[in-house]
Structures are given as C-alpha cells and as structure tokens.
Write a structure and sequence with these properties.
This protein is mainly α. It has one domain (5-53, 81-284, 337-431). It is built from 16 helices and no strands. The chain has helices at residues 5-24, 29-59, 64-74, 83-98, 103-127, 131-158, 180-203, 208-228, 231-247, 252-273, 291-297, 304-317, 328-332, 347-378, 384-403, 413-431. It starts with a helix and ends in a 9-residue tail after the last helix.
Length: 440
Amino acid sequence: MKNSAIEIFCDWGIVFGLCASIFVLPASVAFLDSFAALAVFFYLIKKISRIVIDWPLRSAPLNVLGKCRSVWNGFSPPENILDRPLQLLSLAIFISVVFSAYPGLSFLAFFGKFVKSIFVYFSFLEAMRDEKRIRLFITFLLASAFLTAICGVVQQFNGHDFLKGHRMAGGRVSSFFKEANGLAAYLVPVIGLAVSLLFTAFTRKRSWILTVALTALLIVLLSCLCWTYSRSSWIGCMVIFFVMTLLDRRKVFLAGALLLLIILVFLPSLKHVRHLHLITDDNVTSVQKGSLMISALKQGGSGRISFWKNAVSIIRTSPICGTGFNTYTRVIKRNPDKNTWWYAHNCYLQLTAETGLLGLGCFLWMLFVLLRHGLSYCRQISDPWPLTYLQGTVAGLIGYLVQSFFDNTFYTSQLGLLMWILMGLLVAVTRINIHPREKV
C-alpha cells in the first residue's frame, strides 16, 4: 500500500535520528542514547500508524485471536536475513537472564542495552531503503570521524582536545573517548569504509574534490590511529587491508602501501612510546606501571593472557547458560585478589562467561550468516557505489570483530551500538540492489 504522510514523516524522523546518532557517537553517550531513542520512537509510531490505517480492512473478517495476531505482525520488523539468528540469540541471552547470578543486573541490561540495540538495527532497515539515504548516513559518519580525528590531532600537539579538554594519558591520543583503545576501535571500521570510497573515487575519476577530501580524511584517520598506539586496532586494520584485497584484487597496491605504513611507521613508534612490540611485552619492565599491573603485564599482551585465564575459569563454573548477561564485573569481584578485577579484554570470552556456550554459538552463527550474506552480494552488485559501500562495510566490520577479540569493544555504549549500526548498513545496502521478492 502507498505510504501515508505520517509514515513518510516517520521515515525521515528515523533517518534524522540515525544520522544524528552516528554524528554524536564519539562525543556524547547521552546524546547518542537520546537520538537512538528518537529513531526507535519514530519506528514504533510508523508501525502503529500502519496498524491503524489497515485495521478496518484487515480486522473485519478476523476473530479475537486473529486480531491479536494481526497487531503482533504489524509490529514485526522488516523481514531480513538475520530474522532467525536474532530470534535464537535473543532466546539464548534471555535464558542467561533467567538463570543469572544477579537477575536484576541482567534484566536491566537485556532491555536497556540488547533490546535497544536490536531496535536501532530494525529502525535502520525500516528507513534506509534507498541509496540517497544511505549516502546521507555515510556522509554524517565520515564527517563525525573527521571531526573526531582532527580533535585527536589537536590533542597530540596541544596535550588536550579542543572540545572536551581531555588530556593525553601515557602519550596516547583519545580524542572524545575516555581511552585511546576506544578511539582506535571506532576508527577501524571507518578507515575500511574511507579506503574503499577513496579507491572508487580515484579509479572512476568521479571528482577531484571528492578524491582530495577522501585522501585528507584518510591521512587524518590513519595519523590518529597511529597515535592511539592500540595494537589490537592495528591488527584489525591490517585484517581490513587483507579483506579488501580479497574482495577486489585491484586494491592490492593500495592495501600493500597501507600495510607497509603500519609496519614501517606505526610499529617503530610503538616501541618508542609504549616500549612494546606488536605481540610481546619484552620491554614492559622499562615502563612505570601501577603495582597491581606489574605481575599481569609480565604474562604478555598487556596482561591479556592473565585476563583470559580468569574469563575461562568463570566459564567453567557455568559453561552452558553463563553467569548472566552483564554480570562479569560483579562475578570477577568475588575473588578477593584485586589483581584479577579486570575486564576479560576479549569480547567473545566475556560473552561466553555471561551467556554461556549457548549465547556464544548463537552470536557467532549470526555473524556467520551476516558476513556470508555480505560477501555473497559483493559478487552480485554491479553498481560501483553501492558495491563500494558494501565492500567497505564488510571489510570494516571484519576488522572491528577482529579487534574485539583483544578488547571489550562490544561492552561500551558507543562501540556496542556502532556494531549494530554497521550490521544494519551492511544489510541495507544489499536490500537496495536485489529483486524485491528476494528475502534479505
């Protein structure tokens, strides 16, 4: 049926909320939550309006049960490739909430974090149905990333950023984020998208202004990434360059040049500033660290081996259902030794500790279905710009997921929501380039 005026208004309300969300994401959790809630609000209003408009026609021949089912279907999200994986993941996480060691914490996190993120994903699919809107969203994403990176550059030379006044810690740039690792994780998928856009703009000779702008953006993003000295994000970025080459062999020289930049520029600076190597902590004894961290650091990976062992020990206590969604920090503090009171620094281990092997399995299956879907359409889309958006998003998301193996990226408000938005962007791009009857 033809969209009503209120549905069109709600669509643009969702677009505004999502674009505003991605723009403020690095700088403010409060504004991020507010704009994300606004997008979800317009999504629900649109669903309600459609139910009201269709009610006289659809409800007349139905009994009470049929009418209830009609209302339920009216609130159903857009049909997409992740329908079944999301249902099973939701069930697995809900089971962990039911059997949680701290039910109150798990219940609040389930609705306050997980359900909210899923509705943001649904809102993205509901409104981002054409290339114009997707291009608008990507513009806001890149503009926000540029402002964030410029703030990081200012912080590198002045010692503090120009907006919030955040000061550098340990010689590492953090820009609007609380920590350098948070900034680096944010930059990883954006760099994947920016490199893909730059390659297409240059090879198709679209516009010299666009090419120069994207080149400047990439230089600022890479500089900021270097100054974070985040090894996990550098590894994620190297994976992006590898994936880009697999998706399009014409990018081998660009990807190779960027990889050499990390090897020849990033790595020597890491040893100079943080006194570390990419994998090992051979020189960590020369750095002044807190007394609680000395023993952990000697075990490698800035203490990650020790953190991972603690996570595995928690998993063994409840391997199937986990200790409960959002309970890791509470459970880890049961140990009287404060040296163990650290996040797992591995999203997959922490997810397993909280939701069990059941939750991890459902989450990995969701990622497998999503990435298989994205990689499949990278071979089917012929339009160069949607293909560019898709390749950049797929490569960036893979790099983000690799980075998350070494950090707590999923478990921060900003970066956790960023993952769901990237998932929505991936699916949305495939939806505008397929036959309308085909399920995605």
